[in-house]
Amino acid sequence: MNTGFVVGERGVFVFACDLPDYDRRIEAIRSVAGGKPIRFIANGHHAGDDTTCNDLFAEQGAIVVGSRELARQLLPYCPKRVQSELKQDRVKREYLEGKKVEMAMPAITFDDRITLELGSHVVELISLGKTHTPDTTIAWLPKEKILFAADSRHGGTGLPRAVSEVGDGASNGRRRPAF
Asked: Is the Cβ–Cβ distance between 104 and 85 less than 8 Å?
């Protein structure tokens, strides 16, 4: 799994977060963000190792951003994952109990790609479609040439497709409206 966060002038972008890592992740963000809000959270795919923190970040005002396919996959998956996490008893129960699946769902969806503006940084979310799941998304910072590859290395074609999508860092004229 490939996760991380980016602190920009206008806030923080979080890419993927597994619930057992939430406390450590939020502490790391707060230690470097200088009080800036978490503006966006996006996921590499619908599986719990990427999405189980969505509702916790959304409760703090973050906007969940994801492909339409991620939303389609996540809706039936999310309640099952919550039940599994509760049975395993690996995380704080208050992180799971009483949560509504709608809070974990993308509030902004896209088909191919979308650009998120953080002021000093630009993050391009690019839907690869099917790699090892049907909803793989990568996050690309073109200026910095940083790629959050998610699980694109699984399924054979994902990582080569991710690299071809970002190419030399140009968005190939396919840039979408910014948020």
From this structure: no
User: How many other β-carbons are positioned within 10 Å of the β-carbon of residue 88?
Assistant: 9
pLDDT at 163 over 60: no
Q: What is the pLDDT of residues 109-141, one digit of tens each?
A: 999 999 999 999 999 999 987 777 788 889 999
pTM of the model: 0.79
Place of tokens 């972008």: 13
Q: Where are the domains of the chain?
A: 4-166
* Burial (CB count within 10 angstroms: exposed 0-12, middle 13-18, buried 19+), residue 36: middle
CA-based nearest residue to 114, from 104, 105, 123: 123
CATH H-level, domain 4-166: superfamily: Ribonuclease Z/Hydroxyacylglutathione hydrolase-like (3.60.15.10)
Q: Choose among 98, 94, 126, 95: nearest CA to 112.
A: 126
* CB-based contact 44:2 (threshold 8 Å): yes
Alpha helix locations (H) across 3-157? 22-33, 48-51, 54-59, 68-88, 101-104
